[in-house]
């Protein structure tokens, strides 16, 4: 029989080798786990991208006009819309020609966009009870009829605030979807009244014989409905734009689809930016003409 003398050094060497082997095995397991997690995350991202690409596109029509708060309002809105996939922004300026400053903002947003302009014809300018933004919205609708067949239309003013969940929900619109609008008129909210999942009326401070007492921000339309009614457009009468348009689309109360969890939550608000003082070059002191203020004011006054 051969007797092997095991020394303390040999034991230490074996333990060190086992430790290295264990550490190598643990690292390999960690790398494998990280690789699997990465593949899983990529699969989830790929599935989401495929799902988003299959979603119906949303076409946002936004009338806008030159004012002190315009770029601030549109910047806030654009950075909300940047989080919404498969969206096309149609911005219609109230002007005889589109402006460079608005186009630059649209380009910076990275959103697919169409930049148009329209203004009220002279024969309507002195008439009372004319609705605001009528011809801007009509121009957006004209573009849609010529360039889009499938998707959802939503009128979104540039000074409102939007929860991106609203855009997720309105993609399901089959005919016309409706939802509450917050911070509006004396009631502080305009909302469809829902009973047993159906729209039975409207909770709105301005009823005035309107069949559809809704705000412009309170409904979305499937483009198939728009194309099925080629003569439907925004009427001229102040306060009756929404009601008149939905009537011309031959919509009935039973066609309305309540969103926002049965119209129990507000996902869009009529926020208004406080009107500040208007920057003017004469506000700059003569001693500051060699500073940044001149370029700053020139940029604001474009």
Describe this entry's structure for a reader.
This protein has 302 residues and is α/β, with parallel strands linked by helices. It has two domains: 51-269, Alpha-Beta Complex (Spore Coat Polysaccharide Biosynthesis Protein SpsA, Chain A), CATH 3.90.550.10; 275-302, no CATH class. Helix content is 38%, strand content 18%. It contains nine helices and twelve strands. It has a seven-stranded mixed beta sheet, with helices on both faces. It has a three-stranded antiparallel beta sheet with strand order 7-8-9, with no helix packed on it. Strands 5-12 form a two-stranded antiparallel ribbon. β2 (87-94), α3 (100-109) and β3 form a beta-alpha-beta unit. The longest helix has 47 residues, at 8-54. The protein is extended. The mean pLDDT is 90.
List keywords for this structure.
single chain, 302 residues, Spore Coat Polysaccharide Biosynthesis Protein SpsA, Chain A, 2 domains, 7-stranded mixed β-sheet, 9 helices, 12 strands
């Amino acid at each position: 029989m051969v007797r092997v003398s095991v020394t303390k050094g040999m034991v230490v060497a074996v333990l060190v080798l086992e430790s290295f082997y264990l550490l190598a095995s643990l690292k390999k397991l960690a790398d494998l786990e990280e690789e699997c997690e990465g593949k899983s995350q990529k699969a989830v991202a790929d599935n989401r991208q495929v799902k988003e690409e299959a979603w119906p596109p949303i076409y946002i029509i936004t009338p806008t006009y030159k004012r002190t708060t315009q770029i601030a309002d549109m910047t806030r809105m654009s950075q909300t819309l940047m989080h919404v996939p498969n969206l096309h922004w149609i911005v219609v300026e109230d002007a005889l020609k589109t402006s460079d400053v608005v186009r630059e903002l649209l380009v910076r947003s990275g959103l697919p966009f169409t930049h148009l302009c329209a203004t009220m014809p002279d024969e309507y300018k002195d008439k009372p009870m004319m609705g605001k933004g009528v011809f801007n919205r009509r121009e957006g609708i004209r573009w849609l009829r010529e360039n889009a067949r499938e998707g959802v239309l939503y009128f979104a003013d540039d000074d409102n605030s939007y929860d991106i969940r609203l855009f997720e929900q309105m993609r399901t619109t089959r005919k016309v979807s409706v939802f509450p609008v917050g911070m509006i008129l004396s009631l502080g909210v305009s909302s469809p009244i829902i009973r047993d999942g159906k729209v039975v009326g409207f909770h709105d401070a301005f009823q005035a014989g309107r069949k559809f007492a809704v705000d412009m921000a309170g409904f979305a339309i499937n483009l198939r409905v728009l194309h099925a009614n080629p003569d439907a457009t925004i009427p001229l009468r102040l306060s009756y734009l929404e009601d008149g348009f939905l009537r011309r689309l031959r919509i009935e109360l039973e066609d309305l689809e309540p969103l926002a969890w049965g119209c129990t939550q507000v996902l869009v608000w009529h926020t208004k930016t406080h009107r500040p003082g208007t920057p003017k070059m004469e506000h700059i002191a003569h001693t500051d003409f060699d500073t940044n203020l001149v370029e700053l004011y020139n940029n604001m006054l474009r």
